[in-house]
Amino acid sequence: MASQDKIKKLIDLRAEAKLGGGEKRIASQHKKGKYTARERIDMLLDEGSFEEFDMFVSHRCTNFGMEKTKFLGDGVVTGQGTIDGRLVFVFSQDFTVFGGSLSETFAQKICKIMDMAMTMGAPVIGLNDSGGARIQEGVTALAGYAEIFERNILASGVIPQISAIFGPCAGGAVYSPALTDFIMMTEEKSYMFVTGPKVVKTVTGEDITVEDLGGAKMHASKSGVSHFMLEDEEEGIMIIRKLLSYMPSNNLEEAPILECNDPIDRMEDVLNEIIPDNPNMPYDVKDVIYAIADDAEFLEVHRHYAKNIVVGFTRMGGMSVGVVANQPNFLAGVLDIESSRKAARFIRFCDCFNIPILTLVDVPGFLPGSGQEFGGIITHGAKLMFAYGEATVPKVTITLRKSYGGAHDVMSSKQLRGDMNYAWPTAEIAVMGAKGAIEVLHGRKLAELNDEEKAKFIEEKETEYNEAFANPYNAASYGYIDDVIEPRNTRFRVIRAFQSLQTKKQSNPPKKHSNIPL
């Protein structure tokens, strides 16, 4: 065969591989409002940067006549490219080939780029659209999943791992995304569950739709499995690119510092008036975040889940910062099981990848009730405390208003190695609020008084208690608060604190690993 013929054969094979399952199946994918595996990669990566690996791989299965049907690439497109000029590795499952089902060779392709990502210290992005394990391959498909899971585990905390669910993801397939750092799902076009509606119906008798059992809305708001709920795939691609801009490529690097044109000493007079005079009145803590962030930009994570705490990424003085903030607008900002888990996971991600943490505190305590106690609030609340106490990245804490009881300790207090702990003049740092404290301290006396005397006595004692404790100065007198700052100057004080902490060096005692209360 002449050289030109060989080159023509290569070009023809490449064209065949790029067609995946064929034009008919590509048209079917488009009809569902979904992009193909290759289209997704083209949208995600910098133009012209994608370098594909293993394009000519095909399956080796001979069961059930499978040897008669083979496709180049075997249902997954893998390779490397760049996002904003930074190296990333990506795999994109191709639903047009055997429904994107995983085979032994399919898994080997994914494992290869994950190994390369670890060697190079670059993020891995998985674009999922798969019917699950390829049944015809039997146990080799299951082994393939386990090989991927092990790599997810070993890569955790070493390189960022992001999963986008753009179609089905069921059975054992769900555990690879579950082991990654961030999951996002498209509304009405994606789902995740361990067992589908038919099995649920057979085993439990429960009738439930695919969307209600494992849709994007459910996982974003109820289970917390998904960090982002997407209107469409384009939004998902944009969020992946934005997320990576806040992260280093691996745990040995720092997150990129961008040029900041927003003055670091910008005063925000609105912050001097944002806290209501009535301590029981809510306000939106996100208004505080937008006011102090560079160019009012904030990428919220887990927006629909555990809304009583807000987490996400922003920049301050060009530096990437992870924000954790109690949300008085929802359940008064109280800590509960879901909010503790949500914040703890986010804090641990930031600590893995050297991203400083800003904590905004306005917390009346932990949510009381049998539901919380039966659900293990003690263990789940301890996760949040553990995450803060274990973190060695720079930690700046601002107490905006309430900081009561055990929740005060948990929210990055000085004793949990908070580096800079500031408070606004509106801060109230105490074991509990005035009303509850008076009932405990003066319960016997109150029982002896009539209603009129009781009201007068409570008013007197509440005033006394508030003067003694419902302010930041008592805590400041012990050095638990480093400074009481004017709210409008918060941006400048936080940025200066993080700048001074850039050379912070802190390590935990040598150990195999910690035993966080899971």
UniProtKB/TrEMBL annotation:
Could you tell me which residue ranges the CoA carboxyltransferase N-terminal domain spans? 3-259
Q: Which residues form the CoA carboxyltransferase C-terminal domain?
A: 263-500
PANTHER family membership: PROPIONYL-COA CARBOXYLASE BETA CHAIN (PTHR43842), PROPIONYL-COA CARBOXYLASE BETA CHAIN, MITOCHONDRIAL (PTHR43842:SF2)
Q: Which superkingdom heads the taxonomic lineage of this protein's source?
A: Bacteria
- The molecule here is called Acyl-CoA carboxylase subunit beta
Q: Name one Pfam family in it.
A: Carboxyl_trans
* Coiled coil regions, renumbered to chain: none
